[in-house]
Amino acid sequence: MDGHGAVLKGVLFAIASSLVASTAGAASKMIADVVPVTTIVLFQYGLCLLLLVPMFLRYPFSHWSTRRPGAHLLRGVAGWLCFYAYYLAIKHIPLVDAALLRNTAPLFVPLLVWVWMKVEIPKSHWHPLILGFIGVILILKPDLEGVETWHLIGLISGLSLALSMVGTRVLSNTEPASVILFYYYLISFLCSLPLAIMEWQAIPLWTLPYLLYIGFSISLTMWCYTRAYTLAKASIVAPINYSGVVFAGGLGWIIWGHIPDTVALAGIVLVVVAGLLSSWLGLSQNRSGETINNVPQVTSK
User: Fold this and answer.
1) 168 neighbors 226 (Cβ within 8 angstroms)
2) Are 299 and 167 spatial neighbours (Cβ–Cβ below 8 Å)?
3) Which residue among 24, 151, 216, 287 is least crowded, i.e. fewest CB within 10 A of its CB?
4) What count of other Cβ atoms lies within 10 Å of the Cβ of residue 43?
């Protein structure tokens, strides 16, 4: 597959990932009042690990070894924190707000690459970043008493997702997708276990279908997500995740009757426009063969 074909396929995987993740978020919000978030996250990653068992048995043990445990640990903890913070936010704020704040990740990606890998951000790329963060401020609605805690938790979800994106892109240059997923699920399950034990309570039977859906759908989401960032650069594919805001907004309106006010709607528009602009700049760079503001390739040594 040529470069442009890989980018297109990566974009399609990103759209599928956003659609499945939005419905899983809605399922989480439906049961969050009776099932602790820690239990939801533990169940999610436990089921994801079970789904990997056939794949684990198919390959020899040497297939699952890695020379980059530190990178896997950073990527795994970041991915776990993303979902834990996301589900916490979903419980207390509208689904569309939580989804939008989680999808601020593309705004953080260039900043993380700049800080982590010392890759300079061109002046043209600062414009969508500034525009996007103005939109975030409108959504957070800070007043004299500060910003609502649960909106800040949602923003933490976006920051940790950005770190996970960069980590996935870096690992994809030396690790198979199956290995990336295995260590991500394992590390996230281990992070979830102690918190779930501390907050454990009986699970109502009627919530089991929702938990099963969350587990299966997130496994599919992560597979699509990993494939997307394996096929294309983070700065190209990441803004496509904003389609999840549209899906979440529709679900929030249909199920809970949540309609953003004028200020929040203006913030959503600014963030989405910033994401699309970042995507266009990334695609332009891809056509010209430039690598500025993209996660650099890491060669195996």
Assistant:
1) yes
2) no
3) 287
4) 22
> How many beta carbons lie within 10 A of that of residue 71, not counting itself?
19
**Within 13 Å of residue 161, how many CA atoms lie on the same side as its CB?**
29
Residues with Cβ < 8 Å from 8, sequence gap 6 or more?
Answer: none
Of 30, 80, 52, which is closest to residue 223 (Cα–Cα)?
A: 52
The tokens describing 230, both together, are: 């394996």
Average pLDDT over residues 142-165: 80
Residue whose pair of structure tokens reads 């993209």 in the numeric block:
294
Q: Which residues neighbour 274 within 8 Å (Cβ) at sequence distance 6 or greater?
A: 107, 128, 129, 131, 132, 135
- Provide the token pair at 38: 């820690």
> Which residue type is seen at 109?
V
The amino acid at 74:
L
Q: Is 59 helix (H, G, I), strand (E, B) or coil?
A: coil
Tokens of 285: 């760079």
Which residues on adjacent β-strands are paired with residue 146? 143
Structure-block tokens of residue 231: 């096929």
- The rounded Cα 118 to chain-centroid distance in angstroms is 23
Give per-residue pLDDT as tens, 245-298. 778 888 888 899 888 778 878 888 887 787 777 666 655 555 544 443 344 332
pTM of the model as a whole: 0.80
